[in-house]
Design a protein that fits this description.
It is a single chain. By secondary structure, the protein is of the alpha/beta class. A six-stranded parallel β-sheet has the order 3-2-1-4-5-6, with helices on both faces. Strands 8-7-9-10 form a four-stranded mixed β-sheet. Strand 5, helix 6 and strand 6 form a beta-alpha-beta unit. Helix 1 crosses helix 2 and helix 1 packs across helix 7.
């Protein structure tokens, strides 16, 4: 929540979107899963965009009103069929995927980038000028932003989805952990019995 939560919440609260506006979240992973929840909690009609159908049900459980499979057709066309969006919050670090959403923005719409990539955005100035679109990046936030995020999360019920991973300590003091794909986040549970020889129960790190 201190990373993904403040990044997505802080980015969305600084847009021009108002409750009732349509907001699309591009990418449903570490950043995107709190992004969908915050978008719904802030009163936006929330559209989740991801590759394939595997995350469609997760997106709905997180609060998305609509789900767009980016591999099944033109993402911008899908957004336009829903009425267009005021904001796209790009959490997936994929420049081509970000650019593909731009024609789905409403006039004076905003593409807000928080997903990191070094690839340039393949967007032409002409795409931006006539509809008066804007593109901006957004950092995570300050200590005050973190406090605001946590306060809003408590009030609205936004919670991170966490997968627990157990780390074991070998006799020579080396730590090992199973290699698991973590879709949303990971919480490490360390065994005190194996590291220190005492049964103090699991310690959350």
């Amino acid at each position: 929540m201190y990373w993904a939560g403040v990044t997505t919440y802080n980015a969305m609260r600084h847009t021009k979107a108002l409750p009732g506006d349509r907001v699309a979240i591009l990418g449903i992973g570490g950043l995107g899963h709190p992004g969908v929840q915050f978008s719904r909690a802030m009163g936006f009609e929330t559209i989740a965009i991801a590759r394939g159908t595997a995350k469609a049900e997760d997106a709905r459980q997180l609060g998305a009103h609509h789900y767009v499979d980016s591999t099944s057709g033109d993402v911008a066309e899908a957004l336009r069929k829903l009425g267009g969006v005021a904001v796209v919050l790009a959490t997936a670090g994929n420049s081509a995927a970000m650019a593909a959403t731009v024609p789905g923005l409403l006039p004076r719409g905003e593409l807000v980038v928080v997903g990191v990539t070094t690839d340039p955005l393949p967007i032409s100035p002409r795409q931006l000028i006539n509809p008066a679109l804007s593109i901006s990046g957004h950092p995570s936030g300050t200590a005050k932003d973190v406090e605001d995020t946590m306060h809003f999360a408590v009030l609205s019920g936004v919670r991170p989805w966490v997968e627990e991973v157990t780390r074991r300590w070998s006799r020579d003091g080396h730590a090992t952990a199973p290699s698991l794909p973590c879709e949303y986040g990971a919480e490490l549970i360390e065994s005190c019995r194996e590291r220190h020889g005492v049964d103090a129960g699991p310690v959350r790190r």
